[in-house]
Give the backbone structure.
Amino acid sequence: MADVQLVGVTKRFGAVTAVDGVDLHIADGEFVTLLGPSGCGKTTTLNMIAGLEEVSAGEIRMGGRVVNDLSPFERDVAMVFQNYALYPHMTVGENIGFTLRLRKRPKDEIRERVARVAEMLELGQLLDRLPRELSGGQQQRVALGRAVIREPAVFLFDEPFSNLDAALRIKMRGEIKELHHRLGVTSVFVTHDQEEALSISDRIAVYRAGRIEQVGTPEEVYARPASRYVGRFIGSPQMDILVGELVRAEDGAPAYRLGAGAFPVPPALAIGEPVDLGIRPEHVHLGAEGVPARVRVVQPIGPATHVTVEWDGGTVTARVGGIARYAPNDGIHVAFDPAGMVFFDRETGRRVELGGAEHG
Amino acid sequence: MSARARRRLSTWGVRVGLAAFVVLALGPIVWGVVTSLYPTSALTNVPPDLDPSQLTLDNYADVLASDRSLTRGLVNSAIVATLTAFVSLSLGSAAAYALARLRVPGGNRILLGVLATQMFPGIVIAIPLFLVFSQLGWVDTYPALVLTYLSFTLPIVIWILKGFFEAIPPQLERAAAVDGASTIQIFRLVILPISLPPLFATGVFAFIEAWNEFFFANILTRINIKTAPLAIAEFAGQYQTLYGQMLAAAVLASIPVVVLAVVFRRFILQGFVEGAVKG
C-alpha cells in the first residue's frame, strides 16, 4: 500500500509537450480517475506512474520514495490495459500466474494463489482456456486477475472498459468498485468517459492539453466546475453555455439577459460583468412561468425526457422526469433554477466564485 | 439476369479460373513425374507410348548410380539452403523487430533501401558478384552462395516479419514488463512463442528459394559445391538429353521442398495471414 505523488511531472516527445507540470497527490487507498479527451496526456501520465514511460522533468513518489528511475516491477504497480494485453499463447491460469512464475515462486503456491484469484473473479471454470476462447468480459476479468494476484501497492487502469459493450461496461464498473472496496489498494484509472469517471472515483482529475484543469470529488467537478471546459466536459447532456449580459431587471433585481428573455440570478454578481452562464438540464424548468419559448426537439430516454427549447436569444436543453408529452413547436415558458446557475469569466473561462450563494 | 444467376455465373467463373491456374501450375509437374517413370524410348515415340506395362523405376536407379552426382548436389543444396534459412531468420528477425519497435533513425529509408535491392535483375549483379568472389577466392565455396542468396531472401524476410511484429500490440510487452519480465524474458517467453508461425513461414520460404536457385549457382560454382539444380541440368548433354533420368532427378530434388511445405502448411498459412493483417 502506498500513496502516489506527482510533483511537476512533465513529458516531452521531441518538440511536443504531452504532459506539462502535473501536480497531484493520490492518498493511500484512494481511487483517482484521470479524465479527459484523447490526446490530453492522461495515458502518458499513467505510463509514467507505471514506469513504462520516462519522466522528462519532475518527480514521482510512491510511499514517500522517489521512483523516477525504478522499473515498473520495482515500483510494485500492476496495470490493466485497454486491449487487455493477455498473452495469447498462455491459458487463463498461466496468464494470471505469469508474474509469480517470473518470481520463481513454488508451483504449489502459484496454483493456490491463481485458484483463489480465479474464484474471486468467477474464472474458476476457465483456467485451462486460451484468451481467444473467452468473451470480452471474461478477458477483461483475466486482465484484472493478472493485476490482483500481484497484491501490488498501486493499481493502474488504462481505459480498461473501452472495448466492452455498454451493458458490460456498467457491470464491470460495479465489479472494479467492489474490488477496490474489498482490497483498498490505491488505484489510478484513466478514461475519456465522464460518466464512468463520476461513477467510480473518489476524486477526478480533469485533464486539458497536458495539464490538470481541476481535481475534485465527483460532486465538486459536476456541480462546481472550475472552468467552462470542465463544465462542458462533464455531464450528459452537456451543460449549456449561454452568452448574454448581466442587467438590472425592471423590478431592480439582477438578471441575465439573453435576447428577449431575462432570467433572475443570485444577487452576488456585479451588474455589467462580462460572464457566460452555464446551466445543466436538470436546472432548466419548463412550465407556465418564465421566458416564453417554443419546443424544438423532444428526446425521451426512459426515466426522463430531454427537451430542447429555444426563444429569441438562446437555446437550452431541459431534463424533465418521466416521458414528457411535448411536441415540437409547442409554446412553453422556460425558467432557470438560480442555485444551479454557474458563471464563467468570458475572457479566461474560469468559474466566477459567488461566495457560496449559488448553492443557497 | 437475376442476382442469383449472376452469383452462380461468378462462382463458375472463379472455378474455371482456378482450374486453369491449377492445370498451368501442376501440368508440367504431372508430366515430369510421368516422364520419370517411362524409358526414354517410350517417350520419344510420336505419339508417346504410355502403356502402363512400360512403367519402370529404372530412371531412378540410373540417376542414383550415375556419376553425375545428384546425391552430392542434394547434400550441397541442403547445406546452402539450411544456412540461408538460418541466417535469414536470425538477422531478419532481429532487424525486423528493431525496425518495427525501436525508434531507428532513418528507419523508413532503411526499409526502402532494403526493398530497392530487389529491383535489379539478377544478371546485372551476377558479373560484378562473380568478379568480387573471384578476387576473394570464394568462387565454388559455400559462403559465396549463401551470401548471394541472403541478398534476396533477407529483404523479404525483413518485410514480412516487420509486418508481423508491428501487428503485435505493444501493450503485450508492456504488460510483461509490469509483470516483472526482463527484456530477454519478454522476448523469450512472450514474443518468441507467438512469433513461431511467421518464423517458420519465412524460414521455409528462404529455404525453398535457396534450394531451387539455378542462375547464380551456375555462375558461382565449379565442381565442389554444385547444387541439386545444376546436377539435374547436367542430364542434358551435348549429344543427347536423358529426359527420363533428368526428370527422375528433378522429382527426387522436389521431395524435401514438398515435405517442408506440407509439414509446415498450417504454420505457413497462419504466418502469412497474420503478417498480412496489418502489413
Observations:
- Residues 274-279 of chain B have pLDDT under 50 and may be disordered.
- The interface with chain A takes residues 169, 171-172, 174-181, 185, 189-190, 193-194 of chain B (CB under 8 Å).
- The two ends of chain B are 39 Å apart (CA to CA).
- Residues 164 and 217 of chain B are 31 Å apart (CA to CA).
